[in-house]
């Protein structure tokens, strides 16, 4: 196959928008060098940002959830429920940071997040730790060994609504996992193996099977699963005291949170890879930045996730430093550079692009 022209070798004014296909075999080394050199003074996780952000988001989320439960009208309950879902969504997204920051960077933050957010939402950090990092391995990204990749742009049109709507059932599935499947797995070992391999990770690739946890992660799994079991039965037991309504409202809020995250996942990548390994540059261009201007992306892609492509260049960069890293790279590399190829205008444009691609697949003989 004839190799495509590397856009970085053409005069800037003549360059077309860079694409993944142009960098399957070789990297844009100038961009990678700039990413390294221009951000040397960044990268330190700041407790003064992480702790208040996480605690305030969780506090608003739980406070407005209580307001939704106690509301005296459906309209008021819906309004508080939406605010609660968005705030809890932001609090949940710190699970992404936990997988990348150095283990000694924020003492106590992982345990506090699990107690305040992860276990109450039945998404403890072990469901991401040891899994998400596989998505960043150069030889596994976009392949069948990547737990967080599906070639959605190459699938049938019905796959997109199905991908989003299945998230509505996530809270029920998590409640079932911790309340029933976990204790049954203690007695039925094959069930325990199946639950661990197929229902213990935030993944979208149905072919992925999780390997056994080891070392310190195995220890964290034990106490987090116990916490999830106790909390799941606390929620179920609350029905006898408070009735069905509080739990149903909480599940609706959690479902909305899951759907928002699934929509964000839908546009986190272009999903155009058919399973072959790619260079770092190709992975970057298959990923998505939705930079300013515009505040909407900060709501549906919080905690630095609006810079998801940049994150794939620098996975350990704290979320609060990504805007400055983006500004420096954008200024240095300019319009129509390889770096600019991963910058997109918003969710609507991205969903439309993926949908059009699936329509082409749907028309194929």
From TrEMBL:
Signal peptide residues on this chain, from the entry's feature table: none
Q: Where are the transmembrane segments?
A: 49-71, 77-99, 111-128, 162-188, 229-256
GO CC aspect terms: membrane
Nucleotide-binding as UniProt keyword? no
Q: Which UniProt keywords apply?
A: Membrane, Transmembrane, Transmembrane helix
GO terms (molecular function) for this protein are: oxidoreductase activity, acting on paired donors, with oxidation of a pair of donors resulting in the reduction of molecular oxygen to two molecules of water
**UniProt domain Fatty acid desaturase: residue ranges:** 78-336
Gene Ontology biological-process annotations: lipid biosynthetic process
Q: Does the keyword Transmembrane feature in the UniProt annotation?
A: yes
Name of this protein: Fatty acid desaturase
**What are the top taxonomic ranks of the organism?**
Bacteria, Pseudomonadati, Pseudomonadota, Alphaproteobacteria, Sphingomonadales
């Amino acid at each position: 196959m004839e190799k495509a022209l590397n856009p970085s070798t053409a005069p800037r004014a003549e360059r077309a928008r860079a694409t993944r296909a142009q960098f399957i075999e070789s990297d844009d080394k100038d961009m990678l060098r700039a990413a390294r050199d221009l951000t040397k003074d960044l990268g330190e996780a700041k407790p003064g940002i992480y702790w208040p952000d996480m605690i305030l988001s969780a506090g608003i989320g739980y406070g407005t959830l209580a307001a939704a439960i106690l509301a005296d009208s459906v309209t008021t309950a819906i309004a508080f429920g939406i605010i609660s879902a968005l705030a809890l969504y932001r609090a949940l997204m710190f699970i992404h940071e936990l997988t990348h920051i150095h283990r000694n960077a924020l003492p106590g933050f992982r345990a506090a997040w699990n107690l305040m957010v992860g276990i109450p939402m039945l998404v403890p950090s072990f469901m991401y730790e040891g899994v998400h990092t596989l998505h960043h391995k150069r030889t596994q990204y976009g392949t069948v060994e990547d737990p967080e990749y599906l070639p959605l742009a190459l699938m049938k049109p019905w796959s997109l609504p199905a991908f989003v709507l299945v998230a509505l059932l996530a809270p029920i599935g998590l409640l079932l996992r911790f309340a029933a499947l976990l204790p049954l797995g203690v007695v039925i070992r094959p069930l325990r193996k199946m639950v661990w391999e197929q229902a213990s990770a935030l993944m979208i690739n149905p072919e992925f099977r999780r390997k056994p946890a080891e070392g310190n992660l195995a220890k964290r799994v034990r106490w987090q699963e116990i916490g999830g079991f106790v909390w799941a039965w606390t929620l179920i037991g609350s029905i006898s005291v408070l009735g069905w309504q509080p739990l149903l409202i909480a599940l609706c809020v959690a479902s909305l949170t899951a759907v928002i995250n699934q929509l964000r996942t839908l546009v986190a990548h272009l999903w155009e890879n058919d399973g072959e390994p790619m260079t770092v540059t190709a992975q970057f261009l298959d990923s998505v930045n939705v930079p300013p201007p515009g505040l909407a992306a900060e709501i549906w892609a919080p905690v630095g996730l609006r810079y998801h492509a940049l994150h794939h260049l620098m996975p350990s960069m704290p979320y609060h430093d990504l805007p400055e890293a983006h500004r420096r790279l954008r200024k240095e590399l300019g319009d129509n550079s390889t770096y600019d190829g991963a910058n997109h205008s918003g969710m609507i444009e991205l969903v439309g692009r993926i949908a059009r691609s699936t329509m082409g697949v749907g028309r194929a003989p």
